[in-house]
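User: Hey, my collaborator sent me this sequence without any context and asked if I could get a structure. I don't really work with proteins. Can you help?
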Amino acid sequence: MSESVTEILTGAGVLAVAAGFLFYAAGGTGLAGGGDSYPLTASFRSVEGITVGTDVRMSGVKVGSVTGLALNPQSFFADATISVRKDIVVPDDSTIIVASEGLLGGAFVEIQPGGSPANLEPGAEIEDTQGAVSVISLLMKFVGGGQSDETATE
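Assistant: No problem. I've predicted the 3D structure and written it out in structure-token form, which is a compact way to encode the shape of the chain:
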């Protein structure tokens, strides 16, 4: 009888730990508690390195996350939806940038606030965007040393 009690307690402990991990993961990706943020949209030329759940930062502090990415079939730009904490106001002349944490670091989305007294409403679009810069293409330009195409092929 004591063996079955031990097995039941062990199983309950494993389920409790699994539920804790699930709750933690849902909170980290923004799936839980969506009532304390508001959505904004932006259209980027490139969102390389950005996925759903990527941090949105302002002055290096996380203020939200990316909640959706889709290709716009008319403009061929990447439309991003982000959620921003309700206690953070974003001026309507702000800039949104796909930034990198370093040469080998991950990417994140940065909001650089503008100086306008008017703020973006929930669901509004941040129009001033700057997409991801490809590190590989920059390195190739640097390694090429500015050679023209004719001298590079010889």
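In plain terms: The beta strands are 37-44, 55-58, 61-71, 78-85, 95-100, 107-112, 125-126, 128-130. You can pass these tokens on to your collaborator as they are.
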